[in-house]
Amino acid sequence: MPAELVGVWDIVASGCTGQGNPDSDTRLVITPAGIDNYEQTFKPVTAASVSDRPRAWNIRSTLTFDGESNGYQALYALHGGDRLTIVDEHRTETYSRCK
């Protein structure tokens, strides 16, 4: 995963503190190796920069959920370093970086 995205994120209007709520089903833990989210993991296959302003990437991943793996593609846009919007074919979600 792109270094700028590494961290703990959650969908909370006021942001979150520390490592966020580990029981949240909207919490994302992004590491260089991928994303852990509630009952799913995403392992990046490719990450292509598509914009410098805002920083944005088209990331193709292998999504594993409930023992099954499938391809997944989404646009990840970073706003000011502390907001992350993820757009895929089903939804758009904006996350706050936990501090």
What number of domains? 1
Report the β-strand fraction as a percent range: over 45%
- Figure out the total of helices: 0
Number of strands: 8
Give the CATH class: Mainly Beta
Question: Termini separation (Å)?
Answer: 19 Å
Strand order of the largest sheet: 1-2-3-4-5-6-7-8
What is the general shape?
Answer: globular
What structural class is derived from the secondary structure elements?
mainly beta
Q: Summarize the amount of helix as a percent range.
A: under 10%
CATH-assigned fold name: Lipocalin
Descriptive key words:
mainly beta, globular, 99 residues, 8 strands
Overview of this protein structure:
The protein is mainly β. The chain is 0% helix and 60% strand. It has strands spanning 7-10, 28-31, 34-37, 40-52, 55-65, 68-79, 83-87, 92-97. An eight-stranded antiparallel beta barrel has the order 1-2-3-4-5-6-7-8. A hairpin with a 2-residue loop joins strand 3 (34-37) and strand 4 (40-52). The chain is globular.
